[in-house]
Design a protein that fits this description.
This protein is an all-beta fold. The chain is about 0% helix and about 35% strand. The N and C termini lie far apart (about 35 Å).
Amino acid sequence: MEIVTENSDKQSLNNVKLGENVKIYNFVNAYGCSIDDNTKVGTFVEIQKGASIGKNCKISSHSFICEGVHIEDNCFIGHGVMFTNDIYPRATNPDGSQQTDADWTLVETFVKKGASIGSNATILCGITIGSNALIGAGSVVTKDVPENAVVAGNPARVIKFLD
């Protein structure tokens, strides 16, 4: 593992399982997750507990990979990509009390091998992005994406398939 930083106070890595030759740049916050061999994580990325990132991935700066997101090998995550993990997010319960981990249901998301997600895309929870799929920049992905599909828009729609 290589942490590319000028000084250790620019990192927050807690209980992270790291593979070989992982590169993590400044201002990354990662905890309770796994990052496999030869993956690069850019600046200002957050990777939450229970998230997993495969081998040979590139996670670009300012992206948010929340709990329950599973990214397989050889994936590209563009700048500012946002994942979600709750279908009905709320700050408080009906009685006005602040919600805790016990008050919501985690909904997992899967990004299959070789998929690429363009900058500023938003990926709603509970979906699977198929192998080698390509998500256009700025897209809002609300349902499963077939393998080898190119999708774009809000909501994202299939515009073609790759050979």
